[in-house]
């Protein structure tokens, strides 16, 4: 097992390597996916990516609730 100066050098090398990997990786997939979810159900707070999916969700999960006015013109 590495000790003293060798251990410190190994940690520095690993930190530099991890920084390079993070730098080249680019964008975060979770953040991009979360940004794509733009429609939020007012009843259950579920997020959907497009109005068609939102209308289908609303009709199947909340059939007794009136459709929100912003979804009136959307076809399922």
TrEMBL record:
UniProt entry keywords in alphabetical sequence: Cytoplasm, Metal-binding, Nucleus, Repressor, Translation regulation, Zinc, Zinc-finger
Keyword Ion transport: yes or no? no
Q: Where is the composition biased (Basic and acidic residues)?
A: 17-30, 53-62
| Record's protein name | Zinc finger protein 706
State the species of origin: Oryzias sinensis
Q: Where is the C2H2-type domain?
A: 39-61
Where found, per UniProt?
Answer: Cytoplasm; Nucleus
One of the GO biological process terms = regulation of translation
SUPFAM superfamilies in UniProt: Expressed protein At2g23090/F21P24.15
Question: Domain Small EDRK-rich factor-like N-terminal: where?
Answer: 1-37
Report the InterPro entries cross-referenced here. Answer: MBS1/2-like (IPR045230), SERF-like_N (IPR007513), ZNF706/At2g23090_sf (IPR026939), Znf_C2H2_type (IPR013087)
* Annotated region (Disordered), positions in chain: 1-30, 53-76
């Amino acid at each position: 097992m590495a000790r003293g100066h060798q251990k410190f050098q190994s940690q520095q090398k690993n930190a530099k390597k991890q920084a390079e990997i993070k730098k080249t990786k680019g964008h975060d997939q979770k953040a991009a996916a979360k940004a794509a979810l733009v429609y939020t159900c007012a009843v259950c707070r579920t997020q959907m990516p497009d109005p068609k999916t939102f209308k289908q969700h609303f009709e199947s999960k909340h059939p007794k609730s009136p459709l929100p006015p912003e979804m009136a013109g959307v076809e399922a």
